[in-house]
Write a structure and sequence with these properties.
The protein contains 14 helices and 18 strands. It has about 425 residues and is an alpha/beta fold. Strands 1, 11, 12, 13, 14, 15, 16, 17 and 18 form a nine-stranded mixed sheet that branches. α6 runs parallel beside α7. The chain is globular, with a radius of gyration of 25 Å. The relative contact order is 0.15. It is an enzyme of class 4 (lyase). Pathway: Amino-acid biosynthesis; L-lysine biosynthesis via DAP pathway; L-lysine from DL-2,6-diaminopimelate: step 1/1. Its cofactor is pyridoxal 5'-phosphate.
């Protein structure tokens, strides 16, 4: 997408607004499938939590993607978007047995990550095939908040609990058709995948009826110019070759599965915000925009870096700005960042806004969530309307006794008497 395209969208749909480039999503999907072309049976399950708009789900479904879900609501969204139940894997954490049973009733692939639920589910539904999520005790990911495969993580069944796991499977006679892991997000070193894969391969040998092995995801994408990223081509060559060796030893061709989310949609996303005020203080120049961490929380939550450019003045002189939002709390997108000179009314563009951005937006400060636009085949398509006040109060319920009660006015003399 070009700057003029984004400026046109800001003009036509208003700001703030999220924009997604369909072409970039398509090219990322093709890049990953090509990287693992040595694997006869490859399945990419898009992680819906990254960006769950129905139009995005349909776009990826049309590309041949499966769907990775973590809630019953994401399962329902996937079915509504046209995914076949057998192309959806459901990997929850800490949910009730009833929710897992509801997902199973819809025909999707169940993935269980704790011994208690595994035993309960296997006892009641031994004929429903189940995937098992293993915790390989591998520390990986961009920071502690997105590292999920280490020994203190709440995710997965510890590799040290394999004997207990095998006992449950034996006693319940349940069917295990898949082994899964996910070590974290923003993984740079492909050796993490190669090391953890050996743990999965060793675990897989305990089960004779597997259909797939799922390596999760966590591929790192570049967030700024010159940034490093996961070399998926090298990973495809090395892990793909090792996977084929394992299948030979296992005696059957299995499916190699991944669950990319950020890798597919992060770079496709742009967040556009308008500058409300440029404020000079004794030490800082603030550019205050018509948004905040209610729309884009990643910088405040994770310390994430989103490249920011001034679309309205692409040729201007660079100056240092701290870009901040309008939330009544510390609300910083970037501190002392070099950006082309900013004036009030300019449109700023935040890059890498496709993954974990709109999906984590809220109505904090009673602000409306922004619109979403899909750029496809050179045209802008509105895929979510901007919220309004009716949306904000839609599910709120007035208590009649409060709504009808007249407002009381304090008597200043009575208040003075109470003080005395």
């Amino acid at each position: 997408m070009k700057g003029k395209d984004l400026l046109g969208i800001a003009k036509d749909f208003g700001a703030p607004v999220y924009v997604y480039d369909a072409g970039k999503i398509q090219s990322q999907f093709k890049r990953l499938t090509h990287a693992f072309r040595v694997v006869p049976k490859l399945k990419l399950n898009y992680a819906a939590k990254a960006l769950s708009n129905l139009s995005i789900l349909r776009l990826l479904n049309n590309l041949g993607s499966g769907l990775d879900t973590v809630s019953i609501q994401e399962v329902q969204l996937g079915l509504l978007a046209g995914y076949r139940p057998e192309d959806i894997i459901y990997t929850p954490n800490g949910v009730s047995l009833e929710e897992i049973e509801e997902a199973a009733s819809l025909g999707v692939q169940i993935n269980i990550d704790n011994l208690s639920i595994l035993e309960q589910f296997g006892s009641k539904h031994p004929d429903i095939p189940v995937c098992i999520r293993i915790n390989p005790h591998v520390m990986a990911g961009g920071n502690s908040k997105i590292s999920v495969g280490h020994i203190d993580s709440k995710f997965g069944i510890s590799i040290h609990q394999i004997p207990h796991l095998l006992r449950i499977v034996e006693l319940t006679k349940m069917k295990i058709n898949g082994i899964h892991m996910h070590t974290g997000s923003d993984i740079l070193d492909i050796d993490v995948f190669l090391y953890a894969s050996e743990i999965l391969f060793d675990t897989a040998m305990h089960f004779k009826d597997l259909e797939f092995i799922d390596f999760g995801s966590g591929f790192k994408v570049p967030y700024k110019e010159g940034d490093i990223e996961t070399n998926v081509e090298e990973l495809g060559e090395k892990l793909g070759g090792r996977f084929r060796e394992f299948c030979d030893a296992y005696g059957r061709e299995l499916t190699l599965a991944f669950e990319p989310g950020k890798f597919l949609v992060s770079e496709a996303g742009y967040f556009l915000a308008r500058v409300n005020v440029v404020k000079q203080t004794t030490s800082t120049v603030f550019a205050g925009v018509d948004s905040g961490f209610n729309h884009l929380i990643r910088p405040m939550l994770y310390g994430a870096n989103h490249h920011i450019e001034n679309l309205s003045n692409p040729g201007g002189k660079e100056r240092y700005y701290s870009v901040v939002g309008y939330i009544c709390e510390t609300d910083t997108f970037a501190s002392n960042r070099r950006i082309r000179e900013i004036s009030e009314g300019d449109i700023l563009c935040f890059r890498n806004a496709g993954a974990y951005c709109f999906t984590m937006a809220s109505n904090y400060n009673s602000r409306f969530r922004p619109a979403e636009v899909l750029w496809m085949d050179g045209k802008a398509h509105l895929i979510r309307k901007r919220e309004n006040f009716e949306d904000l109060i839609r599910n709120q319920v007035d208590v009649p006794a409060l709504a009808e009660r007249p407002r009381q006015t304090a008597d200043p003399n009575e208040a003075h008497s109470r003080v005395k």
